Amino acid sequence: MPLKPPATQPTTRPTQEAPEAAATRRGTPLPWLILGIVLVALNLRPSIAGFGPLLGQIQAELHVKAATVSLLTTIPLLCWGVLAPLAPLLTRRRSSETVILLSTAVIGLGALLRVGPSLPWILLGTVLVGAGIAIVNVLLPSLVRRDFPERVGLMTGVYTLAVVSGAALASGLAVPLRTALGGSWRASLGVWVGLAAAGVLAWLPALFGRQTHAPRAAQGPAVWHNPYALPVTLFMGFQSLVFFTWLTWLPRVLQDRGLSAAASGLLLSAGNIVQLPFTLAVPILAARLQNPFPLVLGAAALIGGGLWGLLFAPGWPLLWVLLLGAGCGSTFPLALVLIAQRAAHPAQVPQLSALAQGVGYLLAAAGPFLFGALHDWTGGWRVPLGFLLAVTALTLLTGWRASQLPDP
To answer: For residues 272 and 375, which has the higher predicted lDDT (pLDDT)?
Structure first.
């Protein structure tokens, strides 16, 4: 049965104001605004992606099990899920720009504590990093759609390109930085504190000419009445679960199959780098389609092919990692575009974003932990990889439901 339309037809264009006019109204030169978006977005993955290639050393030094060390990735995802609904509430008292600035500063503080001397300090830093990213995850894409209404696809691509680039840099440089900094995983991860500081400085011009208190927003229909809310939320959750699980565990899987830590880190970086053209092109294509299911189908096929190869033909790791990267580089921007397309009203975009990311990331948080637990239980990687294949099938199913057109 086709989904019934919301009270107001979903639209890919929340408002008709031109992007240049929006930037002028805000008092921020357009190049500075784009630079601020890019540098803030670059901070949304390094503190997580940088852990993957170093998990073996971190686990050994902390004397914990695989499932326990996976909490360093799982806790941020839990924070994203629990705290994402707070983002729209925070903007009732302060502008989105102000909240994004403060949240980026929290990411930097958390990244500093995350390289502390003991596990409690590391966990505290992990919570702060997760809290800061949770708020920016919701507000920055909504701000992009608000201030670039005629270029939603392009600017969503720029945003996701920056996010994925941050992950690629962190995963690719983790081991070389550790080597250059005396073999310390703490020093390797501590480098990203500087990136957070750069993000704060670059975002300051976004506050020029803006109120520090939020203006009263127009009220739209409640997100609970939108029939797309559930499939969009589940699609966000399942695709995130797959991505963050292999982002966390792929280097360990490859190392157990004979690759060095440096080689596995480079392969993980390749899997992130190959996402870059997809994160830019896919949202542009999806924004032009009323029904983006062909893109969902293609992305799921790429992910499924990569996981199948790791399971049954592990001798070609580069090929399978590239397929995984291309697929996941497509599903993330697709989820963001679906949020914009399936919101029933401009005011519902941040609500649907908070719901989809809140519930979706709570679902995704189970992935790295379950993957590590399945490995502890079975002693191998076949069952955990089969688990990810099953979740990829659910990603395809929910993407199909979220892509359906409403009844005329």
So the answer is: 375
User: CA 250, CA 266: separation in Å to the nearest integer?
Assistant: 11
Express as a percent the part of the chain with pLDDT over 90: 43
Q: Are 115 and 187 in contact (CB under 8 A)?
A: yes
pLDDT tens by residue, 86-95: 998 898 888 8
Q: Using one digit for the tens of pLDDT, what is the confidence trace for 325-361?
A: 999 999 999 999 998 888 787 678 788 889 999 999 8
CATH of domain 19-216+224-403: 1.20.1250.20
Helices (H) and strands (E) in the chain, counts: 19, 0
Helix (H, G, I), strand (E, B) or coil at 345: coil
Q: How many CB atoms lie within 10 A of CB 4?
A: 9
**Residue (of 43, 46, 69) closest to 375 by Cα position:** 69
In angstroms, the CA 320 to CA 61 distance is: 31
Dist. CA 192–CA 218, nearest whole Å: 38
* The residue to which tokens 């009323």 are assigned: 290
Q: 402, 231 in Cβ contact below 8 A?
A: yes
